[in-house]
């Protein structure tokens, strides 16, 4: 069960905005476009996994938790 619906990540929204506003002559446009394409592909993959998980018919209740930081000892795991 997915309790919190997945929204568009801020980084992806920011990169989309930059791509649409930067002129093609800007020095950093290729890096921004590359980052945008990778972020967009990653988000599309996450949506596919969400759809797959929603279709699973498990015998016991289950929860998918994303964006969770767990502190283990002195290190932080994400």
Characterization of this structure:
- There is one protein chain.
- The protein has a two-stranded antiparallel sheet.
- The radius of gyration is 17 Å and the shape is elongated.
- The chain has helices at residues 10-21, 29-55; strands spanning 70-72, 75-77.
- The longest helix has 27 residues, at 29-55.
- The protein is mainly α and 78 residues long.
Write a concise keyword list for the protein shown above:
single chain, mainly alpha
Treating each run of at least 4 consecutive H or I residues as one helix, how many helices? Answer: 2
Radius of gyration over all CA atoms, rounded: 17 Å
- What best-fitting shape do the alpha-carbon axes yield? elongated
Q: What is the count of β-strands? A: 2
Termini gap: 21 Å
Oligomer: single chain
How do the helices and strands line up, and which of them pair or pack?
Layout: H1 10-21, H2 29-55, E1 70-72, E2 75-77
Antiparallel strand pairs: 1-2
Helix pairs in contact: 1-2
Describe the structure in brief:
The chain is mainly alpha-helical. 50% of the residues lie in helices and 8% in strands.
